[in-house]
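Much of what follows relies on a compact textual record of a protein's fold. A record is reproduced here so that you can trace the correspondence yourselves:

. . .
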Amino acid sequence: MSIKEFVQKFYKSDALIDSEILKTYLHPDVILEWNSSKGFIQMDYDSIVEMANELSRAYVRSKVRISHIISEDDLVSVRYSHFVKTIENPREEMLLAHFATIWQIKDDKLYRGYQMSQFS
């Protein structure tokens, strides 16, 4: 599987709201540098897994719609929109945010991430 296919598989899985699935994609030394609407956040393995646990408490379903994905060497750039369904209203899909992320892949895992997000 190419690194581009690996990243697509990651976003098409429930990894963003299921920490057990997420763990299979993360390198033990993963670092995510995220410029969000709340400012700059740096996350490691444990904080990324905890974020997935928090999301799973609020959302029953997660869907990522990728609009652009490009790979070169050990890097994959992906632009996507993240949609969720809440526990309170599982029939309605809600846009969580738009994202642009560059992932560096090492040992067939997500190793370094550089991400920007914007609420719609």
Remarks:
- The longest helix spans residues 45-58.
- The mean pLDDT is 96.
